[in-house]
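Project outcomes to date are best conveyed with an example. Our students and postdoctoral researchers have been running inverse folding experiments weekly, and each run begins with a structure described purely in tokens. The record below, which covers 105 residues, was selected by the lab manager from last quarter's runs and is presented without edits.
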């Protein structure tokens, strides 16, 4: 199931540099424009339709169509008495992250 957010949350993510790459509003798909210089141009749809050319209000639901890439855990280990368990868990978590990331491409 795709995550749904409102316009305020979307703009917050854009500002923080965590903008989703693909979204859907009222059945229309929009793609993040890396080269935007005005928030009006942050998302473009078919025929370069801008996100705010679609009727968008504070309660408009925006579907996130892409998932973020999951970062793998660092190879640097914290000092701990149970290092074998940490290594085993880290490797398993990284394996799961690689699998999920591969499915998203």
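After processing, the design step wrote out the following sequence:
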């Amino acid at each position: 199931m795709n995550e749904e957010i409102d316009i305020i949350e979307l703009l917050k993510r854009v500002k923080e540099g965590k903008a989703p790459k693909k979204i859907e509003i009222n059945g229309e798909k929009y793609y993040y424009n890396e080269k935007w210089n005005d928030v009006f141009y942050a998302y473009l749809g078919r025929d370069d339709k801008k996100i705010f050319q679609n009727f968008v209000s504070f309660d408009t639901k925006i579907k996130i169509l892409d998932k973020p890439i999951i970062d793998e855990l660092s190879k640097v280990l914290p000092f701990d008495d149970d290092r074998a368990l940490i290594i085993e868990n880290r490797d398993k978590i990284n394996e799961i992250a690689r699998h999920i990331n591969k499915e998203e491409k």
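Residues 4-64 form one domain. The first strand starts at residue 4 and ends at 5. The training component of this project remains on track.
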